[in-house]
Amino acid sequence: MFRGGDGNGLVESANLPVDINADSDVVWRTPVHGRGWSSPVVLEGTIWLTTATEDGRSMSVLAIDATDGTVIHDRVVFENESPNFSHPTNTYASCSPVVESGRVYVHFGRYGTACLDSKSAETLWERRDILYDDFRGPASSPILQDGRLYFSCDGVDVQYVICLDARTGETAWKVDRRIDYESDNPDRYKAYSTPAIFEVDGRLQLVSPAAMETVAYDPKSGDELWRVRHGGMNAGLRPVMAKGLIMVTAGDGGTSLVAIDPTEIDSDGYAKVVWSNGRMVPKRSSPIVVGELLLMVSDDGIVTCRDVISGEEFWKERIRDDFWSSPVSDGERVLLCGKDGTVAVVAAEREYELLSKTQFPEGFNATPAIADGAIFLRSISHLYRINQATE
């Protein structure tokens, strides 16, 4: 799923290369038709990704052999007669798929959610009745946990979180948001975040950022556990957790970045904010935690490294302009991919060290996938394989 099996972008069993050459290090490059910012996901030697026509009338899934880049499946999942408007900076295939043994789950926002057989790519079930007006196109990715599929639906008309039975596609629960948006402008109600499930004091919690607030739910029942008010709209992140704190960015406006203690909840149901920061915080890219370090790259390409527990800033450096892709790491190095084709590797340390920076011919909006001894990079129109370091 989005940001790997644990959803945090960290694959400690990997070995990212210190230097990446845009020519000699590319094992293969496979064209991907249409447009899509969804991230590739990998399981059992197969890469899955979604794409769509620019007008949104046709939405497809591709399966690609991880070894040689051969396209195994390329099939249309949904067709739409009159799609709603999608912002030119977005696509109709910006929600990343989820894969498990035997099954692939694809989600295109209001246009449909489907479960496919991973061998044949045939549809096992589909839902086209989970409706909301995303206003700028779909972007919230689903997550899979214990046989259930979860995703957020924060539109300008309705806002809710939904849980589906992954085997049947039937709704297990659906909970409306109860948020005071402090505005009559519905544009301020929308968000594009991906939820995350964390264990807190031995209990699982589904944490789902929205406009103005982040809310935690019981994954089994949908009952609310706590909330935090941080302001903002258009949040596009996936939360991360480390050292007992949950880190959330707020999108456009608001406090931008908050560190939440989910064990301290007041009488009104609000969790404690341990620290917050409003400078150089990404609106689209998700943060990553490596050890006790919180690293993130702002939309304008400034990488910041902070202490998870205190929020203290250790360093900040500009890599390049325009970053939407989320960073990934092997625990020692952090890989960053920019909208202009920049691919940089920095050390995950308290002192800044740029290990390498190279230029690809196309830009990156999708987050890389790390699997099968390789890094898979999705650019505007291609999927690349780059092998991990051997030493």
From TrEMBL:
PANTHER family associated with the record: CELL SURFACE PROTEIN, OUTER MEMBRANE PROTEIN ASSEMBLY FACTOR BAMB
Domain Pyrrolo-quinoline quinone repeat intervals: 22-127, 159-390
Signal peptide feature range: none
SUPFAM superfamilies given in the database record: Quinoprotein alcohol dehydrogenase-like (SSF50998)
Name of the protein this chain belongs to: Outer membrane biogenesis protein BamB
Top-level division of the source organism's lineage: Bacteria
Gene3D superfamilies: 2.40.10.480, YVTN repeat-like/Quinoprotein amine dehydrogenase
Cross-referenced InterPro entries: PQQ_rpt_dom, Quinoprotein_ADH-like_sf, WD40/YVTN_repeat-like_dom_sf
